[in-house]
Amino acid sequence: MVTLDSPPLEYPDDEGQPRGLNVEIALEALRRMGHEARVEFVPWKRALEMVRSGKADAILDAGFNPERATYLHYPQENIYLEEIFAFKRADRRLTLDEGLGNASDYHLGVGRGYYYGTLMDQAIKDGRFKSVHEVFEEETGIKMLAAGRIDMLLGVRVPILFLLKRMGLSKEIDIVPGTGTGLDFALGSSPTYLAFSRTTVSKAFAWDFSMVLQSMKLDGSVTRIARRYGLP
Questions:
Q1: Alpha helix locations (H) across the chain?
Q2: Cα separation of 67 and 225, whole Å?
Q3: Which CA distances in Å does 204 have to 74, 201, 209, 212?
Q4: Count of domains in the chain?
Q5: Is the dihedral of CA 35, 38, 40, 45 positive or negative?
């Protein structure tokens, strides 16, 4: 199983052991199916290539899109629901219009190979932002934002807020509000999955995993794991 380093959802601890909300959920579901998994943390683009080629059996925290579905079996049950926001320096009064009408005013930072939902994915493909800068790690994107090299950084709310706290930048960086609202502008939500390589894993296995994961949600196992990480 391959994934990215994105605490508190997926990350290696000080001893190199895999930790995080999604990691613990995935490993427990596989254990209930009678399987063990070795978790490898790699850059996201490489993780996608590894499951595409069959060098890895599964990828954790993968959003769905049609291109990925050509080489991945997606379970019916998602493992997490990502909330997508843009982040800015707190000392800058930047906003985003409904429908992203002012996107062309801004230099945007994104994770390389990341999927941010339909709205943002299409806006990036259409070149609606002044420029788009890809980074391998979210910490790099945060540093670029803090240094003023980009205007906004796209990210999943929980991991970005976690990193900001760890980097001591919680007061320096905040969420971009909607124009005229003053409220945090949610750019979308994207369910993510433990998805399986079509090269090495059967569709039936993905279905069985989905059923086990669903039972873990119903019996309270997922809630108990989330609470250990202080997450809703």
A1: 21-32, 44-53, 66-69, 118-125, 138-146, 157-166, 203-218, 221-228
A2: 32
A3: 11, 8, 9, 13
A4: 2
A5: negative
Phi, psi of 22 (to 5 degrees): -65, -35
Distance CA 24, CA 175 (A): 28
Residues 149 and 221 in one domain: no
| pTM (predicted TM-score) | 0.80
Q: Do 178 and 222 fall within a single domain?
A: no
pLDDT digits (tens, 9 = 90+) for 192-209: 999 999 999 999 999 999
DSSP-derived letter for residue 42 is -
Full domain range(s) for residue 124:
83-188
183/223 same-domain check? no
Predicted local confidence at residue 122, as pLDDT: 92
**What is the domain-level CATH number for residue 52?**
3.40.190.10
- What confidence tens digit (pLDDT) does each residue in 47-71 have? 999 999 999 999 999 999 899 999 9
Residue 195 CB neighbours (<10 A): 26
Q: Are residues 135 and 160 in the same domain?
A: yes
| Alpha carbons 47 and 168: distance in angstroms, whole number | 29
Task: Give the pLDDT band (50/70/90) at residue 137.
Answer: confident
Burial of 168 (C-beta count, 10 Å sphere; 0-12/13-18/19+): exposed
Tokens 């873990």, residue located: 216
